[in-house]
Amino acid sequence: MTLLEQWRGSAYNENMTQEQYNQFWNHYFVIEKGFYESLLADNEVVTGTIPQLAEKYGIDKMVMVGILDGINDSLKQPNPIETMDETTELSLDYDKEKLYYNMVGAKAEWLYTLPQWDALLTPERRKELYKEQKSSTTIVKDKKIGRNDPCPCGSGKKYKYCCGRNK
């Protein structure tokens, strides 16, 4: 079983009660917040194996696997998380705009509102990325065409006598 499978097995364990599930994720989110506070404050690209990264950030190795699972889509070069083991050299070279955008998409307000973002992205750019992410998940329904409305194809006929005709 790969490290990622082990992490997902424990994080999404179907045998947990709702209370255990909530406790697990609340604990994880606190650790995750601390991790991102450190990562965003550090201007250098962080690399290392899972044990090295876990030690650097003072977290459990399996929690580090969970964080890698979460950040991978925001990295400039994704890590091989599906096949990684404890000796795999990993990089946390993240794309700051992509990371912010993905945090908004994950509804991780405790992460995208961190004060460390002030040094990385302007408030205006964060606002733009926030709006971009929110509008990307908004479904816009086209206005229904009435039978007696002009046909949208531009023929000048009523819709019911043109494209709306049952064929």
Describe the structure.
InterPro entries: SEC_C_motif. It comes from Anthropogastromicrobium aceti. Pfam families: SEC-C. This is SEC-C domain-containing protein. This protein is mostly helical and 167 residues long. Helix content is 48%, strand content 2%. The chain folds into two domains: 3-136, no CATH class; 141-167, no CATH class. It has helices at 3-11, 18-41, 50-57, 61-71, 96-105, 109-112, 123-136; strands spanning 47-48, 90-91. Strands 1-2 form a two-stranded antiparallel ribbon. The longest helix is centred in the first third of the chain and has 24 residues, at 18-41. The chain is elongated. The N and C termini lie far apart (57 Å). 17% of the residues are buried. The model has no long low-confidence stretch (mean pLDDT 93).
Query: Ends: how far apart?
Result: 57 Å
Task: Specify the helix fraction band.
Answer: 40-55%
Count of alpha and pi helical runs: 7
What proportion of the residues form beta strands (DSSP E)? Answer: under 5%
Uncertain residue segments: none
Average predicted confidence as pLDDT: 93
Helix and strand run:
HHEHHEHHH
Shape: elongated
